[in-house]
Design a protein that fits this description.
Number of strands: 29
Radius of gyration: 22 Å
Distance between the termini: 53 Å
CATH architecture of the largest domain: Alpha-Beta Complex
Strand content: 25-35%
CATH superfamily of the largest domain: Spore Coat Polysaccharide Biosynthesis Protein SpsA, Chain A
Number of domains: 2
Structural class: alpha/beta
Amino acid sequence: MKGLILSGGKGTRLYPITFNRAKQLVPVANKPVLFRVIEAIKAAGIDEIGIVVGDTGEEIRHAVGQGKRWDVEITYIPQDAPLGLAHAVKISRDFLGDERFVMFLGDNVIEGGISGLIRQFADSDWNGQVVLTEVDQPQHYGVAELDQERRIKRLVEKPRHPQSNLALVGIYMFDQHIFDAVNAIQPSWRGELEITDAIQWLVDNGYLVHPYIHRGWWIDTGKPIDMLDANNRVLAELTHYSNGYVDRASKIDHLVTVEAGAEIINSVIRGPAIIGADSRIVNSYVGPFTSIYHDTHIEDSEIEHSIVLDHSRIVGVPHRIEDSIIGREVEIGYSSIKPKAYKMTLGDHSKVGLL
């Protein structure tokens, strides 16, 4: 089998974090989501992976390279415009050939990986397999309606009135018949070739598509609250370690990872949390469910349930920072000079909450 990762989206729901950064490269527990997807595919025994890229393709190429760090072979497939998931499959035909493949959205995080799913599909005579999970607001997803025998009856993309709460997770397995489907369907009202329409075509034409209902957690990291939720869940599952420097005046618990080159000085770190390589935490408090990426400096401040990206500085902030995602090369500080006022330089689509 081969792997196909879709990484062409702009990530507008994550602005301003993704204003000039690929959303698939935003880290969860200090590892880009796209890297986690590659690792999941590799763990399933697949070492030929195609990545569909769009406007952020150059950044993704620079970050991922040819796949040597994972011992996989990466092929990049440019998509000129975001014309739908089925369109991404269509333009990947030369890479995929007639082999079975798994398609994985590059901004999804799923509990437990996909090794079992891949084995199940590889040993079957199914023409496709889709992963479903129960969600609270199915109108925001592709939704599957099953019949009394738990077979796929109908698939609808973002229905106004969902007939079930089973959403497509963003992990699909297909054989070569999917290419007949993507060539047969027409663009939707959104102007896109919908993967739900392609799967419906397979079902309507007598091909066997197996619905697998995932019982663990799954997160589409498309919005800030989802990114924080994914960060929480991954941090809670990590095997933690300390390869950095922690002085005697500091207190960290067993649920804290301190990466190489990091320094913890006169500070308290309560896990689950991770402090990135070459970061410094001085006279500060880092609370649970916080990820501090590499080369970041935090001093005389408190932060919890947050994600801080690389090369940022948080110094002398008088109030605790919570429920936040702080981008790269951000500086947050406090000045006691009067007159007191907030001074800000904010990029497009920024969001700030003040007390």
